[in-house]
Amino acid sequence: MTLKQATNSTSGAQPRATLGQIVDVRLSSVDKKTKVGEIPVRLCNYTDVYNNNFIKADMDFMAATGTDREVENCTLYADDVVITKDSEKDDDIGVPALVRENIPGLVCGYHLAILRPNPSKVDGAYLFYALGTKEAQHQFHSFANGITRFGIRKSDLSLVEVPLPPIPEQRAIAHILGTLDDKIELNRRMNQTLEAMSRAIFQDWFVDFGPVRAKLEGRDPYLPPELWDLFTDDMVDSELGEIPEGWEVGVLSDIVELLGGGTPRTSVPDYWDGEIPWYTPKDAPGTSDVFALATERSITQAGVDNSSTKILPAGTTVISARGTVGRLACLGVPMAMNQTCYGIRGKSGYPDYFTYWGVENSVNGLQTRTHGTVFDTITRETFQMAETVLGPHPVVHAFELTIGNLMNRIRENLKESRYLAAQREAMLPKLISGEITTVA
Fold this sequence. Notes:
The chain has helices spanning 19-22, 46-50, 68-74, 124-131, 134-143, 154-157, 167-207, 210-216, 225-228, 301-305, 352-368, 380-385, 393-433; strands at 2-5, 16-18, 23-27, 39-44, 54-55, 62-66, 81-84, 86-87, 96-99, 106-108, 112-117, 145-146, 150-151, 161-163, 235-236, 243-244, 248-251, 256-259, 272-279, 291-292, 297-299, 317-320, 328-331, 336-337, 341-346, 387-390, 436-439.
């Protein structure tokens, strides 16, 4: 299959249809508070849709209960499109997600609407992509109404229009865009595995002291000889319990330095929309993504020069210190950050990835040592009280080399996924509008 630029005479020539003509619109009455009946179900809720393009079996769904009629009416099936129908912001109305597979017991949550395609008129995957265009989103937002909370009525949902080329063309468009999304999903799953591997190695070496305990128990080596020989073969008592002989107990501030951030004056336009990413906690990556590569807002060099923020090098660990305390990121590119975060750099020879995993392992402890009355906060004193086991430098640097390829692969997968997502966003409106046509 190839793509072809449409001629002026054919561009935009495909017919249009309203949702009321091509789908069965269903509104849900099931939510996590529903207690009627005894049928256990899994709930696809607002955040599942808002944060994901696709609804899949491996997602963490809420438990709920409902009556026979509620469950029957709101059960989700493969090729259903689910959209957000009410929210505190009108811009959050009409966010679509595609149910990619049949998931037993999954029902649609209260703040969502089900669009069940008529298969003779519209392909479910095509409909999902068509509803994601700016043109469709504008229609959703124009229908949203409310004061403190916005919503869209079922009758108005039925009036939203989408281009409707023939079914074979719809499927071809969905295949092209879906291929890009499949690769993005593959990268996501790969990153989950790579992150879990990195986490497991840190846990084994620096928390469980696996190689040392294996030597004590006379087990066979499970690391290459050059790594195995770095570990002692005895444990000693300490204030944190048994630790390897020759290792020490200290606090996080022994091995890291903290860097502060700041916000350029928002009233000065010359400080904003520049080339320097400006990190805030909302830019934190998902757990398995580890790296922050882009930010919602950016600043100029003048913004850096005239505020307390500074440009942090790639590899810096960033932790949110107020609000949602303890959200972590490893910077994939140089960035500045705001004052609600700390930048964390290893000192005394402790390298970047070890610093990230050392802080990540300590996050639960940091959260229990937060200070403040209005907001829970992490302060510099928090790091001075957070006890940790200090591994010797040869072991630490061997760890850095061991997981370096894993961490770098996570970062490259994220970069590739960002590029693929940009390609998809560029192609989406052109394919849906007919500006680009598929040629078998």
